[in-house]
Amino acid sequence: MLRIHDELRRGAFTNCTKLAAALEVSRKTIVRDIAFMRDRLDLPVEFDPLINAYRYTHPVAAFPTVNVTEGELLALLVARKALEQYRGTPFHRQLEASFDKLTGGLKDRISFSPADELQSVSFRNTGLGRADLAVFNALSTAVLRQRAVEFEYRKPGESRAARRRVDPYHLAHRENLWYLVAHDPERGALRTFALPRIGQVKVLHARFTRPADFSPERFFASALGVLGGAGNFRVVVRFSAAVADRVREREWHESQELSPLPDGGVELTLRLGALAEVAGWILSWGPDAEVVRPPELRRRLAAAATALSARYSADSA
Q1: Which tens digits make up the pLDDT trace of 195-246?
Q2: Where are the beta strands (DSSP E) in the chain?
Q3: Fewest C-beta atoms under 10 Å: which of 1, 68, 209, 239?
């Protein structure tokens, strides 16, 4: 039917015989499909005996491919509202255009007021990352076409950027921020680059072949958030009863194991490749979280606690 629609929209002289030959179906199928387009989708299709062909009696902007129920329409409206959480991120414009294209084909068969229902739904993400849309589009093109790129990159804490040349493998949206996973030939290893710190991207003519065994799931498997590693740490954290429900309510990592504690708390066990990220996450729980193992993570947190105590002591106020 989409093919028939395209033929009719561009004004081609087409009939059942031509369409059946082009689509390799029977003439009966074409007759049935045209009847469905006319009677069920309300498309202005008519047969003109003067030209021995079908035609649209007036222009049709889009093919009405979707009919929805009231509940499905409400779900679409909720999805449209959820789209606002991506405003300011590189994907917002593409998502909005895709959503408009999807809903543009809906038939206007349902009338209802969703205002009350939508008042009970809201979305909010704290700390949404910022990224330049031109940078994102250039990198996504390079990833899809497997083309090497050069860009300026500033490492965290450094004031000056350095020129890097990499083979971009994957774009990932993690922890409300976009990251590029790329192979750095100079360093002979995969590296992760935060898009807000990337500038002056140049897509090169040089091509590369992404390894068949590369998997973003495996790459991030050892990371609590973004930073993985080659280590193999069994991290055990005990949470107090005051926050136990909050810990149980989320899946923090695919390796997690939860065990109840006698005092109403919960013990969380993770298998991670690096400790840098998990240390900051545990500190965010304050005194309600205690690391049991590994010892190096306990020492890291003890040093951080000492530094915090010194900074916030009464003498330094």
Answers
A1: 999 999 999 999 999 999 998 888 888 888 887 777 889 999 999 999 999 9
A2: 45-48, 53-56, 147-153, 162-174, 177-184, 189-194, 198-207, 233-239, 257-260, 266-272, 289-293
A3: 209
Fold (topology level) of 2-56: Arc Repressor Mutant, subunit A (1.10.10)
Q: Please say if the pLDDT value at position 113 is more than 50.
A: no
Q: How many CB atoms lie within 10 A of CB 71?
A: 8
**Which amino acid does the sequence have at 48?**
D
Question: Strand, coil or helix: what is 62?
Answer: coil
Buried b (16+ CB within 10 A) or exposed e, 271-309: ebbbbebbbeebeebeebbbbeebeebeebbeeeeeeee
DSSP single-letter state for residue 281: H
User: And the tokens for 55?
Assistant: 């035609």
pTM over 0.85: no
> What phi and psi values does residue 131 have, to the nearest 5 degrees?
-155, 145
